[in-house]
Amino acid sequence: MTENFNKNGKTLSKLPNGPQMPGVLQWLQWLVRPLEFLDACHQKYGDIFTIRFNNTPVVLFSNPQAIQEVLNADPNLFEVGKDLAVLRPQVGNESLLLLNGSRHRRHRQLLMPPFHGERMRVYGQVICNITEEVIQQWKIGQPFEVRSFMQDISLQVMLRTVFGLKEGPRFQKLASLWTAVLELSSGNPLNTSLLFLPGLQKDLGNWSPWGRFLRQKEQIDKIIYSEISQRREQFDPTLTDILSLLMSAIDEAGQHITDVELHDELLTLLLAGNETTAGAMTWALYWIYRTPEVRDKLLHELDTLGPSPDPSAIAKLPYLNAVCQETLRISPVVIIVAPRILKSPFKLMGYEFDADTGLAPCIYLTHRQQDIYPEPDRFKPERFLERQFSPYEYLPFGGSNRRCIGFAFAPFQMKLVLATVLSRLQLEVVDQHPIKSERRGVIISPPRGLKMIVTDKHSVAKTI
Fold this sequence. Notes:
By secondary structure, this protein is α+β, with helices and mostly antiparallel strands. It is built from 19 helices and 14 strands. Helix 11 crosses helix 13, helix 13 crosses helix 16 and helix 13 crosses helix 19. The chain is globular, with a radius of gyration of 22 Å.
């Protein structure tokens, strides 16, 4: 065990062992080689270990019992969002990701309803249509970068279902600006460091990365506030996009969401829903076409629906669901749950942790526990048909009151996009060598260089 010190240097409780290198070196490994860093720590220290990036120690653990105890604990024991404060320049002060207590509860209650039930299902055909339009750009025999197209699909889905935007100047401008902002802030580890190191956030004009980010973000803000203003002036209660639904939502005190809150939550949904879902869909296509038996089973299952099935019928396919679940297990785009910073002492796994200690379930390592997932490096969707895993063994969207609000919408989108692609095209992975993930901001993504090629197109759609 290692000693913990408070801000005055006083020795507090003992912490689980962890890497002894300086915090800055730990941070660099976490930034550049996060999965290798976690694997090395797990191999040396086991299911619970302490890492340090600054003055706050963060204890990572992948034991389901420990995860259950933390996620089921009183939320008032923790403060969440400190480690996500790096996203503040992108999403604003009123983002659900950064709020705690009653403000977090209020925003979550307002945001949750549009992502469930019949309201979500109305977006199904929109997702299929967008996918059809995008994949028409793929030509037989011409390699294409998978992730960029999945980002395009996901971004268009978000702009149409969340913002309610239709094709036009505002749609294209916002899509272009958002793509540029993501590349400036997360396109590679050097850009990502802009988020994590405030000292690099210097506005030196358009030639500087942070200067370009601020100017592009300012243009995005103007577009969003203009859209909000126009919608309020010409409010249409029949619209089903999430912006319209949020405008009409009322909290427990009978209050509507403010323009600033709307702006920040729209950006939060855009950030969380675009990059993460695009990464997950890219991984899914990679694993499907790297594993021929999985591809064949999927095609057979899709064929059972006959021509032109309803999107809701596609979403209920058990093997397709298992493929999406296994993708999120073996290649989670979010690898740890946002650290819970203790406000008071807390006992866990024989340790008593002091206030200001961070506790973070590690999604990546939990999903690779061999006693839970035999052959963890093997892509095997059948494991999700053979047994049901607890929310402390399988947690790609986190858990408790901080569970990602897109936990239903993201898999729904994944299934429809994958079904559309498989029913229209025959694909191959260009390079059959295993690929390595890379960091994009706070998520872990498939590499940009992952390419696939269309070998044939179905003249008549098999399923959709």
